[in-house]
Amino acid sequence: MKQRKQAGTTQDARKTSKDSSFIEENEAPPRSNSFSSSKRVFGLCLAMRVANSLLIQTYFNPDEHWQALEVAHRIVFGYGHLTWEWGEGIRSFLHPMVFAVLYKVLALLQLDTPLFIRKAPRILQALFSAIGDLYLYKLAQLLFDTNVANLALFSQLTNWFMFFCFNRTLSNSLETVLTIVGIYYWPCMRPLSRETRLGSRKLGLVIAAIACAIRPTSAIVWVYVGILELLTTKDKLKFIFLEMAPIGLLVLTLTLFLDRLMYGSWVLVPLNFLRFNFLSAGGDYYGTHKWHWYFTQGFSVMVFTFLPFSIAGIIGSKEWKLSGLIAWVIGLYSVLGHKEFRFVLPVLPIALMFSGYSIASIGKLEFAYGKRSVSTTSKKFPMKKKLAILFLLVTNIPMALYMSLVHQRGSEDVMNYLSDEAQKGNVGSILFLTPCHATPYYSTLHRNLPMRFLDCSPPREGNRIPDESDRFMMDPVSFTLDFFNHNSLPSHIVLFNSQEELLKDFLTSNSLEESKRFFHAHFKVDRDLQASIVVYALKHH
Questions:
Q1: Burial per residue of 46-77, b for 16 or more beta-carbon CB atoms within 10 angstroms, e otherwise
Q2: Could you point out which of 113, 130, 185, 245 has its C-alpha 20 to 30 Å from the C-alpha of 514?
Q3: Residues 299, 344: contact at Cβ < 8 Å?
Q4: What is d(CA 262, CA 89) in angstroms, rounded to the nearest whole number?
């Protein structure tokens, strides 16, 4: 009997050891290994994001150049175009200042060549993006386990839209990084059973305040998080009066002084932004969409083939605070008339984290023994997980590469070409007969030459006259003839092939000939198909 009991004990020990090994595989690593693990994850993310940034050769949204790099270039080098938003005081200099510091460093090191000026900003954004990737990994590890964190990171790095957009120098990209990092530090977003690090809420508040200073609409995220914190914290008065108010006031004051220095007068950007975009619906001037656009097209296209996995992860994980944040953000942005993909970028990583949870759950079975539930892994299911990962790679990687390397690349190629020609002294002046902001500008040319584009500033109150860009697109020939009655011919004209066909006679009769043609797109985006973009030059050039 004694011998039989010992054998049974050994068998139980083996079973316990086996169960423990399963738990260890799916739990977060020991605290002592967390730092080295984070370093490895960050190194991987940084390498991938730098490669990602160098692969981006296409044009997505004008704000990447016109509201960040163009402003930074003007600050450091003394020339660069400030759009109408800066005249209205609805943008803060905080975000462009990040790239102004980069440009200044390049200038001091005498590395401010056109190539470095073009590539360095996206490489800097790659550093920020890698930090965002790391904190998404850490958040998934905190909420779930290392296995989920690995697959959340896989989802983040392979999603086509993150690959296409995250490394662009949009304020939305930095806002997304700050959102991920900030959520990680807010106590209300952490599991109740986990110990909250001392001071993490204050750090979360600082990050939230900076995000709102960069993009006032980021307040949509942080109002939700702040209300949750207020409902769950015991020290409500301390949170409001000793943390939130002082930190918010400090960041607002510092931003106010920075904008005072750069604008030359006192400008309260958040108020001006609110007045233009919400109270007067000024953003609607640039187009509106149906209320359901984010649900049926915008956000769905961004998540793409990860969508069923994200939905399954939301349901399976029961992390309702984070899934509620996604619904809150998309719901509020749906109320606004003017909608863009990039506006909801900050909650895309959260949706991808849920996708990671769903993929990690493939192959796990739950067996209930009375009141006790034991999780195990069936040998029949790993192939399903491999097929799911393969499906996501096959659907996302080609899309990411096509959008980053092919679609709408003419806008960037033409400016790179003109920059090279300008450095050789072959360019005197440039006119862009295209829809406004269709290409980068001085921040890519990096040469102080006369340039002109068609204006598309929103009309003053009561003024309904179409802007230059609209008038040109409605009747290119009449507009061009009228334009050159009052302006001299430039050395170079840039236009899309759809307008080139209509203006061919005018161009040839004025001694302008095709200098270079660049592929632009296979399908139309807004109006006509803009298959290529063409540079015409005066013959003596």
A1: bebbbebbebbebbbbbbbbbbbbbbbbbbbb
A2: 113
A3: yes
A4: 11
Sign of the dihedral defined by the CA atoms of residues 258, 261, 262, 263, in that order: positive
Q: Map tokens 């509106």 to a residue.
A: 288
More confident site: 467 or 167: 167
Q: What is the mean pLDDT of residues 443-462?
A: 90
365: helix, strand or coil: strand
- Write the CB contacts of 275 (distance below 8 Å, at least 6 apart in sequence): none
Global pTM value: 0.90
3-state secondary structure 474-537: HCHHHHHHHHHHHCCCCCEEEEEHHHHHHHHHHHHHCCEEEEEEEECCCCCCCCCCCCEEEEEE
Residue-level pLDDT at 199: 66
Confidence band for 363, pLDDT divided at 50, 70 and 90 = confident
Whole-angstrom distance, CA of residue 95 vs CA of residue 454: 26
> Domains of the chain: which residue ranges?
20-405, 410-538
Proportion of the chain above pLDDT 70, given as a percent: 87
376: pLDDT strictly greater than 60: no
Instruction: Kindly report the backbone phi and psi dihedral angles of residue 534, in degrees, each rounded to the nearest multiple of 5, phi listed first.
Output: -125, 145
C-alpha angle with apex 222: 217 to 227, nearest 5 degrees? 135
Closest CA to 309 of 247, 388, 252, 366: 388
β-bridge pairing 430-433 and 512-519: unpaired
Helical H runs in 235-347? 236-237, 245-263, 269-274, 293, 299-303, 307-317, 320-335
- Give the separation between CA 56 and CA 167, rounded to whole angstroms: 8
3-state class percentages of the chain: helix first, strand second, coil last, to nearest 5: 65, 5, 25
368 pairs with which residues across the strands?
A: 373
Structure tokens at 526: 């807004």
The CATH fold assigned to 410-538 is: Rossmann fold (3.40.50)
**Which tokens sit at 472?**
């040109």
238: Cβ contacts below 8 Å, ≥ 6 apart: none
pLDDT at 374 over 60: no
The number of beta carbons lying within 10 Å of the beta carbon of residue 384 is: 13
**What is the Cα–Cα distance from 471 to 481, expressed in whole angstroms?**
12
User: What is the rounded CA–CA span in Å between residue 118 and residue 418?
Assistant: 13
The secondary structure of residue 58, as a DSSP letter, is S
**Is the predicted pLDDT of residue 289 greater than 80, yes or no?**
yes
Distance CA(383)–CA(141), nearest Å, equals: 24
Amino acid at position 183, single letter: I
Helix (H, G, I), strand (E, B) or coil at 195: coil
Which amino acid would we find at residue 325? Answer: L
N residues, the chain: 541
Structure confidence at residue 23 (pLDDT): 35
